[in-house]
Target: LTA synthase family protein
Amino acid sequence: MNKRFNFKNGPILLFSLILLLKGAVAWFVVFDDGPSWSMVLTEIPFFMIVFSLIEWFATKRKILYYMIANLCITLIYFSVLMYYKYYGVIATYHALQQVDKVTKVGESTYSLITPYYLFIFVDIVFFLFLMFRPKYIAKWKERGSKRMNRMLLIVITAVSFGLCVFNIWPNHASMNEIKKAESMGILNYELYTLFADTREKDEIIDSKEITQQAVNDLKGTDTPATPQYWGAEKGKNLIVVQMESFQNFLIGLTVDGQEITPNLNKLVKENTYFNNFYTNAGQGTTSDAEFVVNTSFYVPKNEPATSSVYMKKELPSLPKLLSANGYDTATFHTNSVEFWNRQDLYKAIGFGKYYDQSFYGDDDHIAFGASDEVLYDKTVPELAKIDTGDKPFYAMVISMSAHHPYRMPEEKVKIKLPEEYDGTLLGDYIRAQNYADYAMGQFLEDLKTSGLWEDSLIVFYGDHQGVPMYTLGSKEKDLMEQLIGHEYGYTDMFNIPFIVHSPSGQLPAVMERTGGQIDIMPTVANLLGVSMEHQLHFGEDLFNQETNLIPLRHFLPTGSFLNDQTMYVTGKGYEDGSNFSLKDNSMTPDGSTEAQFTAAQRLLDLSNSYIMQLPDQQ
Model:
């Protein structure tokens, strides 16, 4: 005979209340309005369905199943708030598939943890403690043996299922993932994403429709018959320097009368500086930037480029293009080539040689490998050696010391900041970038003394954002506003510098037009006099175009893009989206069009479709 079930004393109510509190923590971190009554109506029905299944099918160890369900849902909430803290988007199963990478950047991940986040694990620790006390185990077993009334269980399940469907279906068409998750509920959104992705396949556009003219028409550009600066650096070496986490607001910045980046400030004054330039990196951050720069394709939708099927394709690329035009190619990075699957990336895009941790060693370790000083000190002699050959070369050099969370060894700190910066992410970021600039200064001197400076087209750019706006506390936001003169926002976060050193000295000093990493390949190809006529590219030569349209992916809601005036961030659709001025991040009522919104999505589809129809590597 079944024991009577008292709903008030049953585990279904207790565990629902526990998870509701945890959901409130996640909502507080992720959503602007924080927890609300809508949270109760969206999260609790999901709990109830899970717990109803336990009540229906579990006859023994019922409490254990409750604890397992509690742990699984807790981990989902924890993953969501941790991921949002850095990336500003809702983590889904796509992000969790990259969990192995998290273990390799442990310090960076742990730095995002705020003490109150750990509150959501308190009950789990408490339950584990009780498990080792026999009298409590007996009580829990007795409580778990009580059966719920089947009719009540059916009612709870039916009502909860109906509420979940009601929360999900009316909001499934929303393009903004944050708004979608808030309307559906976090757990409903996670479940919806899982099932939606298994049913929805990316449209593959017929290859006949994917032409350079189609791309140009969507972007509103024309290929000039006689491009300006064509072949201005013909026959020169190409050196591409990718600077870790470097944002544009650092250029010219002073704190307490001290220049943060004196060497780059000088570089900007003496060369060509694009001050309205933006990252196109996605979930793979640094490696995604490498992919975009070397292919002029967009990153995939839901995963890093290096973890995608893209790596199996015969990708047209800058290394392959230059190799076909008589160049040697190599890439330099102090981390292990296995990190972010770079061995696949370098094979796919065709670098002739790579230099990684096995070349640089692990001495003078900062972040995830040898310091930038070691990187530059060992790279220049190798470049000089390559330069003795008969061919010009293309070398990509990737810095890493200024990697999140920007914890610099004391002996590497070169600047003294005011006390208000102590213990802040912003302060650590400034110190790390000041050191990176110090190392860069030595690199520039070595390039000049080796003769490479005058014999090479050299470009410098940041790989991705370094100071996520979602991570900053109120104190740090105030400090940032004092530094840049306005509220820190999207346009500041994604704005990176792009600097071009031209041996010929023909190029203008400052370029104001909008650009992105997607544009680097066609821009340098034009300067080197290497034709891209037969190579599809989604970027444009920034010296020969007056307008631009750049879709943005992963760090902003689906549908977001850049044009020449604003950064558009999608709402549930185009109409309720927001435009942010590229000048000062202020919101403006206009600045974009629905035609641009549609064109930006089409560009992403064309890029993905083209890559997916490329032949596999042999």
User: Anything to note?
Assistant: The first helix runs from residue 11 to 30. The mean pLDDT is 90.
